[in-house]
Amino acid sequence: PQTVYLKDYTPPEYLIDSVELDFDLDAQHTQVNSRLTMRRNPESAAAGVSLVLTGEELELISIQLDGNPLTESDFTINLETMTIQQVPQQRAFVISIENRINPKANTALEGLYLSSSMLCTQCEAQGFRKITWFLDRPDVMTRFKTTLSADKTQYPVLLSNGNKIGHGDLANNRHWVSWEDPFAKPCYLFALVAGQLECVSDSFTTMSGREIALEIFVEQHNVDKCAHAMQSLKNAMRWDEDSYGLEYDLDLYMIVAVDHFNMGAMENKGLNVFNTKFVLARPDTATDSDYEHIEGVIGHEYFHNWSGNRVTCRDWFQLSLKEGFTVFRDQQFTGDRTSQAVKRIQDVNALRTRQFAEDASPLAHPIRPEAYIEINNFYTLTVYEKGAEVVRMLQTLLGAEGFRKGCDLYFQRHDGQAVTCEDFVNAMEAANGVELSQFRRWYSQAGTPVLTVSQHYDADAQQLHLTIQQSCPPTPHQPDKAPLHIPVKLGLLAADGSPATFVINGQQQTDITLNLTEAEQSFVFDELAEKPVLSLLRGFSAPVNLNMPRSLEELAFLFKHDSDTFNRWEAGQQLVVQVIFGLIEDLHNHLPLHLNALVVEAFHSLLNAEADDLSYQALLLTLPDESYLAGQMTVIDVDAIHHAREFVKTTLAHALEDDFNRVYLIHHRDESGKFDADAIGRRRLKNACLSYLSQLESSDSYTLILAQFEQAHNMTDQMAALSVIVNSQHPAKASCLDKFYQQWQQEALVIDKWFALQASSYMPNTFATVQALMQHPAFDMKTPNRVRALIGAFSQANPVHFHAKDGEGYRFLADQVLALNTLNPQIASRMVTSLAQWRRYDKGRQKLMKQQLQRIVMTEQLSKDVYEIASKSLA
Ligand code: HT7
Ligand code: ZN
């Protein structure tokens, strides 16, 4: 397969000023008629007179140039393109094409496809070329007029981008609807939807007083699960006006929820298409976290209207320009709507566990990659989540006001354009009169930097000396790294836990952002009468690893006193991490395990402290994930990690049983249907306690858990109980699982939870359960949510069983990847990434994982998607 390089970018040779698309829709035989008004791009330096359009898996019916039919000698078609030998160079011309496609045969869910009984499209990144021949690249922006015709009974609702400009009836029970989008857009933002859909409507009045119609389209049985999505949309629209001064531009905003979707949602202009998972919610079917994710994803897609649609990407290497920025915006939004402290911890936790692993793997790449085989493989944690961290660092460096000025200038300069990450940084510089040349390295350099910190307190001089060295491990094609511009926020604590005042650069302060720009830098903090405790990298001000020796006492002190909510949580995590690694060493040396009393004491005082943010309190009580712990080990030992972590949890449960019971009972009440921060926080804290109590495996704890399962009227409590039951020897396990299935078998999203819970269980026999679930009538390889729930949960959220010593987990995954390869390459390649970390395991597992990767790579007719991930993993 061919590699595409950023360095080879050239402007398009031709432009498409407008396109008229006519779809004669049918599940198996859809005819597409397109009329492209084109001209040569005056900015192109290329000399040729031929026109190359992209198109894949299309059946040509006819083609004309300026109304004259072309014959076979006028053009050539291959697997990916159509080349028309000669087109006018000095004037506009019209290409008219008729072609046929088969949506039902499209299991890759890219282009036009069938989801349940509705037709829908997914065009990002390069799906439009599976609809018709076009210039399928984001820097070709076109005005679209689309007419859809279809059977009136099967497809009563016909939607596309922009405004509805006409409709009517046709013979044979067919009808038509025309849509026009007044904004020029790249074809990746094109969408159409046709089906038997119900519409939930509302409206929003913008800051300038315009009334926008809001419409959510779902299948009839889901109408009662749209209220939260609608409210989320209105919250997002208001938030973007208040926070960025950005107003919606069309008169209509539509969202359609579909069962079959490769990702979370898609920001098509005026017609978002969503995975049902990020729209549908009712208190009894969706958890509190589902509610928060829905609001976050609705916000994310809405925010793309400016950061992505009005200002889009020049080429796909610039993907983080829209994705990193939009993730940053949705993180701010969710933080404002819920708790900034909790949101930041959740985001950093995900980043450190998953993106840091990607950055340390053979798949590491900069947030602006330089080469790809299949662009769909670059919708990564690095481009999205690390990309958002880079935008956050810009905000930290420029201050909230400076950052906003930079955003205003960016939108003003580039409205209606397809631009680059460089343009974004340029706007930040110009608006603030600063120079960010070194900062730009974050866009081109892969890998997670390491900050090695040493400190020395000079009592005589009343000074703290701090030295920070930065380095970055090599990543593929980047053996040597240059120093980055890293903002490091810090504060100091006095012995009584209060903020310590210090003097730096002649100024008295209690916190500061240091600018690291060199490989090694030293800082002196004056006027410190006593030795302070350092709280470094507050708010996780940069996506780096810290290498800073700390005593358990110091961590326990910060866990109690740090005023920075992120670092307080972080101190608790590092305290437990150090203890767990001590236990892992004991396990390796066959020594008996003991839990350090400091940990028990820290958790005891936490459980007895007053708290106003209960969700934050629940996070403070949660032990680091096994996958986070794995990321900290040179050679990952999944069994020892699991054993040591369980030992800590069980010992805490025994030592603090009364505290866990008391806090559980204080917060246990039926508040189903209440989604304010207090009610959510109470559920989170109570369920954190329940999880500890379940470790006791006592008849009292079994009774408590079963009662919660049976009496729950909301999915958060029901799932929390079922989850601990599934991960225990609870005698009612089989009957609870069965009851849950019977209760929810009509709700696909709840059944996904049922699959995922069983696939991620630590209990023995899980692999056999997973194999049996593959044969379950409700399992379907063509439904990505189901595949993620079963195969994804097993391979990504069940380290102990996926990494079983005999390699059965790896073999199973490779079998499924190969089955998915032909059905849905995007989903198949996502599944391969679990094998990419093979070098991090012991020799025996390395060999077994590598064998499966090799087996995948050697398979004939491998998709580009799977080939790229598997071959790069082996490199
Ligand atoms: N911008 C959207 C990306 C997306 C996507 C990419 C490849 C294949 C399928 C896809 N569905 C959606 C989603 C987003 O980031 O908002
Ligand atoms: Zn996005």
From TrEMBL:
Belongs to the peptidase M1 family. Residues 447-548 form the Peptidase M1 alanyl aminopeptidase Ig-like fold domain. The keyword Metal-binding applies. NCBIfam families: pepN_proteo (TIGR02414). Its EC number is 3.4.11.2. Residues 553-875 form the Peptidase M1 alanyl aminopeptidase C-terminal domain. This is Aminopeptidase N. Residues 72-189 form the Aminopeptidase N-like N-terminal domain. Aminopeptidase N is involved in the degradation of intracellular peptides generated by protein breakdown during normal growth as well as in response to nutrient starvation. It is an enzyme of class 3 (hydrolase).
